[in-house]
Amino acid sequence: MLECNRYVRKKLTVFTRVVALLLPIVCVVLLLTQTAFAKNTYLINDGDRVVIHTTYATDPAAVLDEAGLQLGEDDTYTTAEGLGMSEITIQRKQIVSITYSGKTLVVSSYGETVESLLSRMNFHLSTDDAISHSLKAMTFDGMNIVISRTLTAQEVYTVTVPFQTNYCYDASLAEGEQRVLTQGVEGQVQYTASVLYVDGEEVSRTVLSQQVLTQSVDALIAIGSQVEEPEYQEPTKPAPKPTQPAPTTPATKPATTPEAPPVTQKPIIGDGTIVTPNGEVLTYTGVMNATATAYNNADPGCTIYTATGTLCRVGAIAVDPKVIPYGTRMYIVSNDGKYIYGIAVAEDCGGSIKGNRIDLYFDTVAECNRFGIRDCTVYFLG
Known about the structure:
Distance between the termini: 135 Å
Low-confidence stretches: 246-264
Strand content: 35-45%
CATH topology of the domain at 263-382: Barwin-like endoglucanases
Mean pLDDT: 80
Number of strands: 21
Order of helices and strands: HEEHEEEEHEEEEEEEEEEEEEEHE
Radius of gyration: 47 Å
Structural class: mainly beta
């Protein structure tokens, strides 16, 4: 019996030693197995899209494929360890255009600031450059960055001021006969202006000063108003004695100033063209009916300069700039056929000149009074 107990104790001692040796190994194997088959959580950033994906996979490419996020040929990604999960950030290729000095350069970006992209492409901006996007803005696919080179220059130039032609009646001339009393002379005005250029093209021009080099002189032409007397015919029977003496000669046309400057020839206005009385051919692109008044620089509130800084003169008229922009060239005739104002340029404005209303400049107050208010047709010249 004692020998049997000794045998049993010996067997238990061997078994205990074997178990003690294998137990750590089993625990390590179980721990490794649990780690290999544990689920991992990933935070995936794809631009504006954020995806949280849990998987047994550990390869980032496999994780992205499981999450349904396909990478393009030139797309890439980065990985980082976050709080309690791994982070995968997808960097997708962006196509960005840079337009500068009329040329366009197409470049690639993976998401960066405009300033960083321009620096990487060796674009050095000057203080005169204007850019379409903020330097701190982030790039995106299809972005078009436009860089414009601005330049402000001061220029001095001379403008020819055309003379106007005025007419008057002359009873000493036969009807229809003309005589030049004053020869017209063109004027010269020197302007100093600040001119803004963008990419080499003029954008705006501001007149700083002007100087009259030569004053224009209007032409004056006399037109005959003499009317031939009819031939006297002997009456066939005695006429009754009049109670009052009858005039022996017909009355001649008075030599007083007419209501309006005479129009001996009228322009020939066709479809898109105007042939002026002096033979000049003009083209027009539009027509507008307007109510016209007359003004002179002697009127209250007026000076010798227009609102655009040019000299007041016949042909420089006042308009509503919202209807007729400054600088618009026109040909103006009155609807009653008594006035041909001719070529005019929109250079002035007035507080009461609104909508389809224009104000025609005349040299004298008397001319303004004779013109009054008339309906006119305005032809916009090409």
